[in-house]
Amino acid sequence: SKTFGVSPYQSVLLLRLDFAEKLLTDSRMSITDIADLSGFSSQSHFTTMMRKYRHVTPQQVRTRQRRSRSGN
Q: 1-14 pLDDT, tens per residue?
């Protein structure tokens, strides 16, 4: 059943995306490894889900974080 308009699948997916974003910003792991560790079947599927739910690509998350750390 849906709670707060989000299905159980979407709830889990959003948690996986949160976890992946933390790894993108806090680690030097490859995007492929992060996708795998976060439970996505491929880097392509991970990127698709990031675009759909977060409106950014994994690379954009990583690039944005690096810029903010460097003070730009």
A: 555 788 999 999 99
pTM over 0.90: no
Cβ partners under 8 Å of residue 71, min gap 6: none
| Separation CA 5–CA 58 (nearest Å) | 25
Contact yes or no for 59/31 (Cβ under 8 A): yes
Contact 20, 38 (CB under 8 A): yes
Given phi > 0 = left and psi -120 to 50 = alpha, else beta, which region is 7? beta
Give the DSSP H or E segment for 30: none
> In the chain, what are the domains?
8-67 (1.10.10.60)
The C-alpha atoms of residue 71 and residue 46 are separated, in whole angstroms, by 28
Structure tokens at 67: 């810029």
